[in-house]
Structure formats: structure tokens, C-alpha cells
TrEMBL record:
It holds the Pfam family SusD-like_3. This is Starch-binding protein. It comes from Dyadobacter endophyticus. SUPFAM superfamilies: TPR-like. Belongs to the SusD family.
């Protein structure tokens, strides 16, 4: 039986190529490569490094990654179309979960590729100038993948050695060992990487510093987190907050100066990662960025509405908790910049009194008087239509819809692939990292100062003063609330709640549908059963506690 732990780097990867004319990382599948070619020529080694980037696409912009990183938290619960309720609502979560199985397989394949590249870079024939840069990239990527692994599954298999062929054993390694390697790799990456890269999508010095600050915060190394976040903020990298929060999510603004690190998807969808039996047999079954599908409510069966490109293809997977919607005060433009509440008639068959372009459906977090609702020609779904009095879901088909990731540039209304890049680290997050680290070191005034930079940008016109917070307002729960307002949907929330020790507490307090089955052992995920079945040292490599 072939182990699911590690895949040989040259048989089971989609290789990326660099197209300098487009100045971006794009995917293709060259043939005829052998490991000797890849490791011992500069051209071959370039394909190895580019392939190491490609595994990020299995998490970022994919349903598996969203379910693991965003759902099962205080801010999202299951829509009617949810397929991984075991992750979102902890309903008999076990090692059979296919999202976890897929990510485990791909992340360990990525680790193997990074290990091989790091250990054999000296034989690749790279120039003296290029070698440290490529090592820095591989070091960053190994740290990046290992962070996802260790936070998701805890102290599981760890190695820095390349493996080829069949693997039949696995080890259990302390979490601290993972982080020691993560910090070592990231420090080398920071030292080696340039401030800018010639190809968009490659990691830079600023990105490595920002991710290192996130790692310091994760491990409670708050002094180091603050210093490293400040190095990014004061580093003259050219990063800049968008003046308008909503502008971040325009398809015409994917290369915003606010974005520090991104997983990029090509506008030519054929160059992305959709599985193809001939050219890309190890690709993803849906391919490219799918976020635009996942958060949309079911609108296309409502009177006056039909599915179109503008409103998207509604998979209806995830809906906001009432708690998330209530986090945004009236002065905060991030609500309108993140959610849509109105759908406008677009069908050739229209209800009486409604013309094309008129409001057809209105879903709001507010309560509307029954008499007012009855007076409207369009359909309304207000607070008490969507949620019960205790915050549990009443209607998981209609709700305010996260609009951040919608893509009206798709070629057809049923197109599942989007060319939208995934923003992995934004400048706003670095300000919030600095704020949390400052708070943890006792400087509440400085923490408030960092938060207020983000909240000033978030304020509606003329409301900046009302959005300011004081030192006395800064608590860990406030920081988590602010991160939800700023970063909702950006594949961070589960990690935020876990690292702060707040996962179970806040789910029980704010997400009643997710709270029914949540237990303390859910702070790590179950090891995939396929992995447990494949190893021969079953007495040593066992399932995580609490799972069958």
C-alpha cells in the first residue's frame, strides 16, 4: 500500500512555469523531467521552486481550506448547501473527512519538495546572487506549510529530509519542534529575500517578516511579534492601506499596495490548477479560486430573480452567524464593503409592480416591522426571519451575503473558476498583530493607536472620530472582534481562535449552531484515516486524542 504521507516530488506535482512577459507565477506541466534534471540544472531547479508554490492553491481559494480555516468558528455556520458539517458544526468529525485528507496529502507533498530543494540547492548550479533568494523562498514555503500542518493536526509527522518512493512509517513530533524549524526557516528567509521580486506572487522580505510576526504572536512571543510587525510597518516597502475598504475586493485591484503576500491565480484559467487527465492529473477537481461560490445565499429561485454573472453562482455553503453581523457599528464601512443585502430584479418574469432593476429581495441584519415588510412589493428577510431569538439559524437559505470574493468578470454564469488572487497577508493584519502584541506587553495606549489606524480607514465619511477606541477599550476579545470585522472570510479565523485559547469559549457564546457538538479536543483536527491505515508503526502513530 502506498503511503498517503509523502508523494515523490516529480511524479505527483503540478509544476509551475514563469512567464516573464506576464510577470506572474503561472502553472503548466512540462514533460520529460527527472529528479536529476530538476536538481542539477538552474532551469530545472526553477521548476522545482515554482512547483513548491503551487501547493498553496490547494488551501487558498478552495472549499477545503475555507472549511478548515473559517467555518467551525464564532462567525460562520452552515448554509443549506454545506457539505462539511463535521467541520463547521463538529458533527461526528473524524479522520474520514475528505477536506482534511486532501490537505494532508498536498501539504506533505509540498514539504517533501521543499526539503529536497533546500538540501540539494548546492548542486543546482544557481548563480551566487540567485541561490540565497531561492533558498529563502523554499524556507518560507516550508515554514508556511508546516504552520498549517502543526496548527491543524498538532504534533504529527515532521521531517526535514527528502523522501522518495514508498513511505510506511510516520512519527509523532512535539509542536515545539515544528516551531523551532519554522522560526529558523523564516529568519533565513528574512535574511535572504529581497524587498521586491521580479515575478508577482513570489515571497519577499516584507512578506517573510509579516508571516514571522504572525508566528511570534501564535507562540505568545509578543515582544518579538511587536518588533517584527514594526519592521514591516516601518520598512519602506511601499505597502499602503487602501483608502476605501471596499476597493480591496474589486477585480480590477488585485495588485493592491495593501497586499503583502498573495496566492495568485492567472486570468488564463487554463494555467491554473484545474485537474485534467492529460495535462494536470494531480490538479484540483474544481480549480482556480472558488471563494465566490461558497458564501452566496440562494437568490436565484426568488420572484424576479434568475442566476446571472453579477450575483454569482450560489453554492450556499456558509452563512454568517448573527454575532458576526452585529459586530459592525453603523459608522463602520466594512459592513457594506463585506456584505450585500439587496438583490435587484433581473428576470424576464417579474412580480406585479416590480420592474427590472428594482429591488427584488432584501436580506438584512436589522428587524423590520411586520407592517413595513407587508407593504413592500419585494421579498424581505429580516433579523427574525433569518435567526431565532437565541441566535440559532431559522433560514439557512437567505441571509446577508459575504461579497468580498464575488467575481463579475467570469466568462459565464455557471463558471466555477475565478482568477481572483487570494490575499494571504494584508497590511491591515500587520497593524492588528502589532496591536495585539502591544496589548500583551502592557502598552494599551500603543495598541489602541495601531487599532485606530485600521478603524480610521474603516470609518464611513465623517465618522472617523466615532470609530476611534481608547486604551481602556483594548482587550483580547476586542482584538478578536476587530479581526473579525477586518478579516472575515480570509482563512484566518479558526487559527485566531485556537492561538488565543478562545475557540471553544467563543463558539459556545456566539455560535449556537456550532456549539452543540464542540469539545475541547476539537482544537486539533483528526489525522486522516487513510494515513493511519497506510503506516506500519500503528502503535506509535495513533489518531489524535478524542477521535476514533
Amino acid at each position: 500500500m502506498r503511503s498517503q504521507l509523502l508523494k515523490t516530488g516529480f511524479i505527483a506535482v503540478s509544476l509551475l512555469g514563469l512567464f516573464a512577459c506576464e510577470n506572474t507565477l503561472e502553472e503548466y506541466n512540462p514533460s520529460g523531467l527527472t529528479s536529476e534534471t530538476v536538481y542539477t540544472t538552474p532551469e530545472g531547479f526553477e521548476t522545482l521552486v515554482n512547483a513548491a508554490y503551487s501547493y498553496q492553491r490547494w488551501w487558498y481559494g478552495k472549499e477545503e481550506g475555507y472549511n478548515i480555516a473559517e467555518t467551525g468558528t464564532d462567525i460562520w455556520t452552515s448554509g443549506a448547501g454545506e457539505v462539511y458539517r463535521d467541520l463547521t458544526q463538529y458533527l461526528n468529525l473524524q479522520g474520514s473527512n475528505t477536506a482534511l485528507t486532501n490537505e494532508w496529502r498536498e501539504f506533505y507533498a509540498a514539504i517533501n519538495l521543499c526539503n529536497g530543494g533546500i538540501n540539494r540547492i548546492g548542486q543546482a548550479g544557481l548563480s551566487a546572487a540567485l541561490r540565497p533568494v531561492r533558498e529563502g523562498e523554499l524556507r518560507f514555503l516550508r515554514a508556511f506549510y508546516y504552520w498549517h500542518i502543526v496548527e491543524t493536526w498538532g504534533g504529527v509527522h515532521f521531517t526535514t529530509t527528502e523522501t522518495s518512493g514508498i513511505v510506511t512509517t510516520a512519527n509523532k513530533t512535539p509542536v515545539e519542534t515544528f516551531y523551532n524549524q519554522i522560526f529558523e526557516d523564516l529568519k533565513i528567509a528574512v535574511s535572504n529575500l529581497p524587498a521586491t521580486q521580479p515575478q508577482y506572487g513570489r515571497v519577499t522580505k516584507g512578506a517573510a517578516q509579516a508571516f514571522l510576526a504572525r508566528m511570534y504572536l501564535t507562540r505568545g512571543m509578543n515582544k518579538e511579534a511587536l518588533e517584527t510587525a514594526k519592521a514591516v510597518l516601518d520598512g519602506n516597502y511601499g505597502y499602503k492601506l487602501e483608502a476605501n475598504y471596499a476597493d480591496l475586493w474589486k477585480m480590477s485591484n488585485l495588485k493592491s499596495k495593501e497586499v503583502i503576500y498573495t496566492v495568485d491565480y492567472s486570468a488564463n484559467l487554463a494555467l491554473n490548477d484545474l485537474a485534467n487527465s492529460t495535462f494536470n492529473p494531480y490538479g484540483h477537481g474544481r480549480g482556480s479560486n472558488n471563494a465566490h461560490l461558497l458564501f452566496l445565499m440562494k437568490y436565484d429561485d426568488r420572484p424576479g430573480m434568475t442566476r446571472d454573472i453579477t450575483n454569482g453562482r450560489p453554492f450556499n455553503r456558509y452563512m454568517p452567524t448573527r454575532f458576526l453581523l452585529d459586530l459592525f457599528p453603523a459608522e463602520d464601512a466594512r459592513y457594506e464593503g463585506s456584505f450585500m443585502e439587496s438583490w435587484y430584479a433581473n428576470s424576464n418574469t417579474l412580480p406585479a409592480g416590480i420592474a427590472k432593476g428594482d429591488t427584488a429581495v432584501y436580506c438584512t441584519k436589522l428587524e423590520i416591522a411586520d407592517a413595513v415588510e407587508a407593504s413592500k412589493k419585494y421579498q424581505t428577510y429580516d433579523r427574525s426571519d433569518i435567526y431565532l431569538a437565541d441566535g440559532t439559524v431559522k433560514d439557512n437559505l437567505r441571509y446577508p451575503t459575504l461579497s468580498k470574493f464575488m467575481d463579475p468578470t467570469r466568462a459565464s454564469l455557471n463558471e466555477a473558476q475565478s482568477a481572483r488572487d487570494v490575499f494571504v497577508i494584508r497590511l491591515a493584519e500587520v497593524y492588528l498583530i502589532a496591536a495585539e502584541a502591544a496589548m500583551q506587553t502592557g502598552d494599551l495606549a500603543k495598541a489602541a493607536e495601531y487599532v485606530n489606524v485600521v478603524r480610521t480607514r474603516a470609518a464611513k465619511p465623517g465618522k472617523a472620530a466615532a470609530m476611534q477606541v481608547k486604551a481602556a477599550d483594548i482587550t483580547l476579545d476586542f482584538i478578536l472582534d476587530e479581526r473579525a470585522r477586518e478579516l472575515a472570510g480570509e482563512q484566518l479565523r479558526w487559527f485566531d481562535l485556537k492561538r488565543t485559547g478562545k475557540l471553544v469559549e467563543r463558539i459556545k457564546k456566539y455560535a449556537p449552531d456550532n456549539a452543540v457538538n464542540i469539545q475541547e479536543h476539537h482544537t486539533v483536527r483528526p489525522i486522516p484515516q487513510t494515513q493511519l491505515d497506510a503506516v506500519v508503526n500503528k502503535s506509535e502513530f495513533k489518531q489524535n486524542a478524542g477521535y476514533q
